[in-house]
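Lecture notes, part 5. Sequence design as translation. It can be helpful to think of inverse folding as translation between two languages: the language of shapes and the language of residues. The source text, in structure tokens, appears below.
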């Protein structure tokens, strides 16, 4: 592989890890009743999903035969960030008129 490709893969690998950590910490800091208010899974379930996803991002590589696990971890934390996090923020903020 060319040097640029190797560098790009390493950047992708290491850029995904802070995303996972952010998702886990955000889930950790939210109120438990907010998860049930948005009609999603419970707080412990999302802590497990984001924690497991972050662990997969840390343990597996984007350019290795373990890429399937890395992608699954990335998808898990991105689902939290894109779908659950905005609803949590909305329900905890309430109606602002």
């Amino acid at each position: 592989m060319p040097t640029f490709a190797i560098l790009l893969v390493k950047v992708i690998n290491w850029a995904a890890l802070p995303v996972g950590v952010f998702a886990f910490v955000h889930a950790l800091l939210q109120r438990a009743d907010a998860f049930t208010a948005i009609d999603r899974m419970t707080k412990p379930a999302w802590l497990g999903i984001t924690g497991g996803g972050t662990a997969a991002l840390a343990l597996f590589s984007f350019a290795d035969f373990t890429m399937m696990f890395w992608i699954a971890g990335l998808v898990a934390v991105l689902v939290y960030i894109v779908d659950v996090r905005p609803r949590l923020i909305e329900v905890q903020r309430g109606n602002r008129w």
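The translated text above is only one of many valid answers, since several sequences can fold into similar shapes. The mean pLDDT is 91.
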